[in-house]
Every structure is written in C-alpha cells, then in structure tokens.
Amino acid sequence: MWNRIQQMLAPRSFRFKVIMTSVICIVIPAIITLFMNSYLTKDAMKEQAISNANRELKLASEYVTKSLEDMLYVANYVQLDSEINTILKKNAKDTEDENPNILPKNGYREYVEYNRVVKTIENITLLGEKSYVTILLKNGKHYSNYPYYDYDPQKFFEEPWFNKLQNVYGYETIWIGSQSTVFRSEQEKNPYQISVARTLRDANLKIYGYVIVTIMENKINQVFDNMPGNEDMMIIDSSNRILSHRDKARIGQEFPYVNQMQEENFSNIISIENEDYLITDYSLSYTGWRLISLNPYKQAIFKINSIFNNIFLVQLISFIFFFLVLTYVLQTITKPLVHLGNVATTVQGGNLKIRSNIRSKDEIGRLSNSLDQMLDRINEMIKEITETQVRKRKAEFAMLQAQINPHFLFNVLNSIRMKVMRKGDKESADMISSLSKLLRMTIDKDKGTISFKEEVEIVQDYVKLMNMRQKEKVDLKINVSDAAYYEQIPRFILQPIIENSMIHGLNQSAGTIFLEAHVKRNDFIIIIDDNGQGMNQENLNEMREKLTINLETSLEHNRKGFSGIGLSNVYERMRMTFGEGFQMEVNSSEGNGTRVIMCVSRGGNRPNV
Q1: For the segment 556-582, what is each residue's pLDDT rounded down to a tens digit?
Q2: Is the pTM of this model over 0.70?
Q3: How would you describe this protein's topology in the membrane (predicted)?
Q4: Which residue among 197, 248, 300, 513 is buried most deeply as judged by most CB within 10 Å?
C-alpha cells in the first residue's frame, strides 16, 4: 500500500506534495479534535447540569431548613423558658374538669398568667414565617396564638400521630408531614399543613404537656416558586411520600421514581415517558426528609449545550478559515521555489536572461540535475564568504580584547585581600571578601535562581559590609531548617528586605534582625523580623499598596541601597517565578518593629505562620 501511495505522489509537483502533506496533517487532527470535543462535552454538560441542579437544590434547602428551624426555635423556647414552664407545671396539676375555652376560674392571677403565656407565644412567632403554636396540657388546658373557633386544640389528642409522643424525651421531636389543614381560616387558601410536636416533662420525666408548632405547606412551596431555575422541586419523607409540591394533587402520593434512584448504576438520569429527566436529591436536617429536584434533561443542559454548540461552530469556522489561509500561504511559499527551479535551469546554460522550458518530475529534481554544474560558482561564493567571516572574526576578537573580563576584577580583589591579610587587617580582608562575593553574584547573569542557602550567604556578607560602615552593629540571627536551604528562589530576594530593616527599621542603629525559614507540609515560608522603630498605620498601608507596583515603576522609585530594588520588585519577581502560589505580607506597628512574611504555596490553603 505504501508503494501505491508513492506511485500516486511520484508524478506530482513538489508544491502539490507540500500542500497535500500539510492539509492531511491539519485536517485529520482537526477532525479528531472536533469529534473528541463533541464526545467529551456530553459528560461535561451532564456534570455541569448536575452541579447546577445541586446548587439550586442546596439553596432551596437553606430556605426550607430556615423555616423548619424557626419551628424548632419556638418549641425550644417554650421548653426552656423557666417562667412559662413554672406556669404550665402549676396549671397542669389542676385536674379540675373545666372547659379550656373558658378563662381560668381561679381569679385574676391565673388570668394574668394565661395572658402572659399567650403573649409570649405571639411574640416569639412575630419573626419568620407565620406559625400556629399550641401548648396543650395533659389535663386538657391549652394555650395558643389562634382563637378557639379557628380550631379546638383538644382535637390534637385524636390525631393518629399523637400516641407517638409518649416515647419522645428531651429535645426529641416528631415531624408530622403534610396533612389536611385543620385551621378554618387557612383551609381555603392552604389545604395542607406541616407540624412538629414535642413533649413537656417534669423532673420525674412525666409528661405534663405538649408543644405543637404548625406552618402551612404553601410557605414551603413558595420557596420552590421563588427559585431562579425551572426545576420541579418537592419534599418527600422517609416513606417516600410527597409532603410538598406545586401540584397539590400529588401531595400524599408516593414518589414513583425511588427505585430508579436506588439502582447501582444510577447516574442522576431517569426516563419518564420516553424522555430523560435529571434528578437530584438533598437530605434535610432534623427531619429525615429529602428535597428532590426533577428537570427535563434537555432543558437542564440547554444553556450549557448552547455554549458548547457555539464553541463548536466557532472552531469549525476557524478551521475552515485557517485551512484556506494555509492553502494560500503554501502556494505563496512554494511559488518562489518553482521560480528558483527555473532559475537553476537557466544558470545551467550560463545565460541568466534565458528562461528554460525543461520539465522534470518536480522542482527538486530539476535543482538536483543542475547542482553539479553550479558547484564551481558555489565554491567561489564559499571562498568569498570564508574571507568575509575571517575578517568578521578578527573584528570580533579585537572587540573582545577591548572588554574587561569580570574574573580579572575578582582576581585583583582577592590579591588585595591577601595583601591586607598579610598586614593583619582581618576586618578589611573580610570586607573585601564579602564585596567580592556580592559583586560576583551581581555580575553572574546565568543564575536566574539560586538555592536558599546561597541567598542566606549573600545577606550574611551584606550585613557584614553594612556593619563595617556603621558605628553600631546589627545582629543577624538565622533559624533555617535543612529542607529550606535546598529551596530555589530568584537572586537578591532577602537583601532588599534586610536593607530596609537596617536603614529604615533600625535607622542604622544597633538592633537584631531575625531570619526564619522552614518548609511546612509543601509550603515554603520565609519570615523576616526586626526590633526596630516600626511604622504607623498610614505608612504601613502605603507600603502594602506599593507591593503591587509594576517592575518599571519599582525601579524608578527604589534606587537606593546595594541592590537598587525595593519590596515591590521583590514581590513582582517572586510572583513572576511562583505565580499565584506566592503571597507576601508586611505587618508593623510603631515601636514594635516590622515583620515580612513570604509564603510559596504549592497546593491547598495557605498555612498559618
């Protein structure tokens, strides 16, 4: 097959070969890319749709949970308020068979206590959703924030769920799912209600009363209506019975798609009447209920699919455009080569004015046939070029001789240092040695980054030089872990900060600078402290703002000290080297010195330092 392909390409021109090869190398990868993009975006769209649905569901759950927490708050308040409990326990002991709809018979004091409890109930239900609160004593007495003609609280004794309260202790509660509304004033607009019930027990754990807090199911449903998406949301209980839904007719029915959700290969997609739906669920706190979101899959991915389709269309148009551009460019590039073949044939005859009509299989073949006849002239050209290159090398050599070799300077400094050492001036010799090291590091441009150990040695030499210039010495204390010494950083990162501490922080007076560095998990942390005069808040804020000044501005405003660069330059070079993983903080206060913290984070949250 390869021979067959060669035979097909053999009679073709060089231009044809180049164009076809380029087209094949671009078209096939482009088609594969478009196919893979189309295939992979399906999973991406599904994941994004699930993520959006979960986000909407979580937001809805926060509102629903808030309503349920308000109900618990009321129940907790009644159970924990000592004044209310004192009144309730006292009235619970009164076993007189009296009509709870009639005010207490024991005088003005009981009337005041009755009103106090009712007033308290009304006050704690002013905030949040409107709720109906019932305190029902075991002897039949009751307190509520609704009138007796709206509902008789003693009918709660007849509810099928009421017997479950006998086994409820402490802060345990029973959540009663959607039931038909019992309050006459709400029955027309809100056919269903949701309640929570709790027992009131004395010190002997005997029940003396009950607390029932009720809200209308429509309050929960309003949360679903106010959500920005178009999902069909509902609440189901542990028995998979629908408790809240926009369609009131479905409340109380069993959620029909639970079995599909419990399958091992469930992927949040279910089929309903031959249409795919995206389904997600979220567990609600306290209740054991779940919030369900159901949305047609096409509708869920419509916006995302539209974005991907637009991207695909842009890619397709871009491919066609650049394909045409490539074809045109290749033709333009190969056109001089065709002309060069004709020129080579003309040169073969020695007449540059004549254009040859000799044709061969392709342009490269014609150039090959004329190559031997052009060798003499090519050799002459090589000779001329060689002579030119010799003259150029001589000129370059002369120019290099005129330059000063930096190593000559280092050797001279070392010679001076040795002579000074012989004369017994060790301090001056150390000063020359430190200067030589700093000068070598400054001139050596090949080292973009150096080990932290080399950087520490630089600042040690720098402090030595500065101490020789100053009357009062600065003490540099170093606490660096072994792992930190092997870290790679840009050159002259510590020196500008040490310089600021000596000149501005310590004001060229005696003091101490602490240099600490360690590797915490995968994060490299550098801390520089001084016990200088510090800065006020205004100057500190100004310095923090200057940290993000660009490199050119930094060099214009910080031309002082050995390095000629300031904190903003240090910040920018570290950001250029480590990107978003680098953070820098400057903390200071007047009279308490200054602390500079640099952290190179290689993943995760930034550690505490």
Answers
A1: 444 443 333 478 888 888 888 888 899
A2: no
A3: Multi-pass membrane protein
A4: 300
